[in-house]
Amino acid sequence: MITLFVQTKPRPQQRHRSNGRFQYDPSAKEKKDFIEQVKARVPKYPNTDNVTISFTFCYARPQKHYRSKNKVKILKDDIPYYKTSVPDIDNLCKFYMDAMQGYFYKSDSQVVSINAIKVYGEESFVLIKMFHTK
Question: Are 115 and 54 a contacting pair, CB within 8 Å?
Answer without folding.
Answer: yes
